[in-house]
Amino acid sequence: MKKIILLIIVTILIILYSCDSNTYQDIEQDPAATTQDNSGSTGSTSGSSSGRTSGSTSGSTTTSNVTYTTDVKPIITNNCVSCHFSGGESPALTTYTQVKNATSGGSLLCSIQAQGCKVMPRSGKMSQINIDLILLWKTQGYIQ
Ligand code: HEC
């Protein structure tokens, strides 16, 4: 009797597993099709494939490929540009080049992570999700 129950459980698990992997394949095909026209460089191809792997485990498409336009710019606009506009008292962070230079120079990452610099935004650190997105943007090579 116990063996039969065990057999049923194993069968259910196998069915569930095979359904699962089908679903993931379906999901993974969509972002692949859309990210291809987003980025044409060779560097971003490797970035997108590694990003997709982590994206499928969390089930989120946001982390699949971090770009300035869709991910980083809204964060900077919402949290920083009120002070960091061009012509303001602090360095402007309104264009791709300005944000990229501040990030690669280290001052931006140092301040948003409060690593011994003045904390930015001045009201306190942003959510870790925003900070991680900017770090991932750097790792993937500042995709525009
Ligand atoms: C309330 C205004 C304000 C906000 C919001 C703000 N900053 Fe600043 N930030 C400043 C000011 C003013 C300075 C100039 C240095 C100083 O006196 O603190 C500065 C300096 C900096 C610097 C150092 C520049 C350098 O060359 O050393 C960086 C990097 C920076 N901010 C990034 C950011 C980022 C990224 C955000 C958003 C996450 C942000 N700031 C939000 C006011 C602000």
Automatic annotation (TrEMBL):
Biased composition (Low complexity): 39-63
Region (Disordered): 31-63
Protein name: Cytochrome c
Species per Swiss-Prot/TrEMBL record: Flavobacterium flavipallidum
